[in-house]
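thought: user wants a sequence for this fold. calling inverse folding tool.
action: design(structure=
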């Protein structure tokens, strides 16, 4: 990846972190990511919008194609219901694109920066949790850092630095717009989740049980044992995987991998633990998932050999490659994907 793309990568990483922090393991979620880049390279668009339902990219728009398009087959139902739908949504994005380009110039001047590569992003969405509770957020980022965040409870904006506080004062003086954002995050967004679930029910409402495997190794240095519990091919993404000792959740000396998607839309995850081999019988890998009739409790096995810990190094390298692959996939989405925007705020305010 070119060095000039590094700020975009940073911003994408921040977006992913924000998404996880805002939603965690959700029952059903609708999320959107807008990115504007001042000087894109290697064919990257100046502007792109990506929409996700339950973590799956389902619609997109970018400044290269200048078209709103579905990314999954079930979204084609929108065009069948309303033949003008995709054209009307495309027209809406033209104005949004120009607003974001103007916003980049405003911020560059406000922060007294020279011309070059700068990034401006909007992230928002809602979550319908398993217990029936709801959550939602709307947040802007500049140069990979939080710029301003909407507090839907107080109908005000929270800004971390003086430059952002200029925008804060402008947007706090727009009670009508802020009230609309609250209504969207607390009502409209969930109507769209239900609509999309009805379109993509065969994909989004399916259940795939996890395949759980165990591997272990004795450490040469101290004789301790490292055990890795890998959970593969499950859907939906919500899963409870933990180590237990004597039937109780055990957090000491444990490590957690990235909950990451597979190419087929399922997910994978791993957890590891280091223990004294004399206490091996006290530990279990405990897994709960909607695809399982009953929770799984896997016993730890005696390591097969103890010549080296090369296997563990390889495991972590593979895990790192998976992370890179996920990031690369998100970058592809940023470059090639987007959303259905009918439910988003009808206008974007100048900053």
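)
observation: tool returned 351 residues.
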């Amino acid at each position: 990846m070119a060095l000039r793309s590094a700020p975009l990568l940073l911003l994408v990483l921040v977006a992913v972190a924000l998404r996880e922090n805002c939603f965690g393991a959700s029952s059903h979620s609708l999320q959107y990511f807008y990115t504007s880049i001042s000087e894109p390279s290697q064919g990257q668009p100046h502007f792109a919008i990506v929409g996700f339902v339950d973590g799956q990219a389902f619609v997109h728009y970018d400044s290269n194609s200048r078209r709103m398009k579905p990314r999954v087959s079930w979204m084609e139902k929108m065009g069948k219901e309303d033949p003008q739908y995709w054209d009307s949504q495309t027209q809406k994005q033209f104005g949004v694109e120009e607003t974001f380009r103007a916003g980049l110039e405003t911020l560059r001047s406000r922060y007294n920066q020279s011309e070059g590569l700068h990034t401006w992003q909007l992230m928002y969405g809602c979550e319908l949790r398993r217990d029936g509770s709801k959550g939602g957020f709307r947040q802007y980022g500049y140069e990979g850092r939080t710029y301003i965040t909407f507090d839907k409870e107080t109908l005000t904006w929270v800004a971390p630095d003086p430059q952002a506080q200029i925008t804060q004062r402008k947007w706090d003086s727009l009670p009508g717009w802020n009230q609309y954002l609250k209504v969207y995050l607390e009502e409209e967004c969930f109507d769209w989740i239900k609509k999309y679930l009805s379109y993509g029910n065969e994909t989004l409402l399916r259940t795939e049980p996890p395949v759980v495997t165990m591997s272990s190794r004795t450490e040469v240095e101290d004789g301790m044992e490292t055990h890795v519990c890998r959970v593969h091919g499950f859907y939906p993404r919500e899963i409870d995987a933990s180590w237990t000792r004597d039937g109780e959740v055990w957090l000491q000396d444990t490590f957690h991998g990235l909950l990451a998607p597979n190419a087929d839309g399922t997910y994978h995850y791993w957890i590891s633990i280091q223990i004294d081999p004399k206490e091996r019988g006290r530990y279990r890998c405990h897994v709960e998932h909607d695809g399982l009739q009953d929770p799984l409790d896997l016993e730890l096995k005696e390591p097969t050999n103890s010549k080296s810990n090369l296997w563990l190094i390889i495991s972590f390298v593979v895990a790192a490659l998976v992370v890179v692959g996920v990031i690369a996939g998100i970058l592809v989405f940023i470059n090639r994907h987007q959303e259905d925007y009918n439910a988003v705020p009808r206008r974007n305010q100048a900053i």
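thought: summarizing for user.
answer: Here is the designed sequence. Confidence is low (pLDDT under 50) at residues 1-25, 306-314, 319-346.
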